[in-house]
Amino acid sequence: MRAALRAAAVVAAAGAALLLAACATRVDLPTKDSGLRLRVQSSVIAPGNGGELITASALEPGDILLSSIATVNSFGIRLGTFSPVSHALLYLGDGLIAEAVGTGVRARPLADVVAEEQMVVAFRVPGLDDAGVAKLRTWANSQVGTRYNTTGVLLNAPFVLNRRLCELPLIPSSVSNFCISGMAMVQLGASRDDQFFCSQFVLEAYRQAGLPITAADPRWVSPADLLHMREGDVPSIAATQPLRYIGHLKYNAPPILAADGPS
After folding, report:
1. What is the pTM of this model?
2. I need a labelling partner for 199 at 20 to 30 A (CA). Which of 20, 139, 154, 193 fits?
3. 179 is catalytic
4. Domains of the chain
């Protein structure tokens, strides 16, 4: 009897933890090789825990970089999205990246990013060919100087928190997707699509290249959403295909907060 009560308590505690975290889940049906399996969204990825350190030579044009920096702004984004990343960048090749920051869209050396950020992790979109790379780079370079989508970021902050109601444990993915879509159309309708915040810029670049990463509006997607689109994870917003993890260009322990920087 006690054993049964202990087991029930463990199940209840696990359920409560999932409910409080409100992270996306997925149920994999039994197969001939495995039984019923519940998968839970995970933000854990680091060298020594399913990850590896790489150098810039491992990157290819079009790779997506996700990063975090030791600033109050970055910490606030990570806390709000329950994620270790707060910024998304696009690798253009030849040691250059493009990104949308508070001053607008800019291109700069990858080496500067690695030097400044606390963590930089790379992912690859399968299927990007040379023609797609050319379109992606041309569009990204043409957007340098475009203004930052401040309105989109301000609207996205409450949306990220409110939509967690759509991600309660064991909610079917079809219901969750419908819930998130409906909430996004109501809460993000006033956001600009001719200005960009970081992950919106990355997703729009891929749309312009003819290889959209998701069918969702880029204004709905945060850097944390891109992280969860990786292979083996459970995405909150469905991807057309999982992103392939390449490795960490830099990884440090959780940072101590400093004054805000430009990211």
Report:
1. 0.78
2. 20
3. no
4. 43-251 (3.90.1720.10)
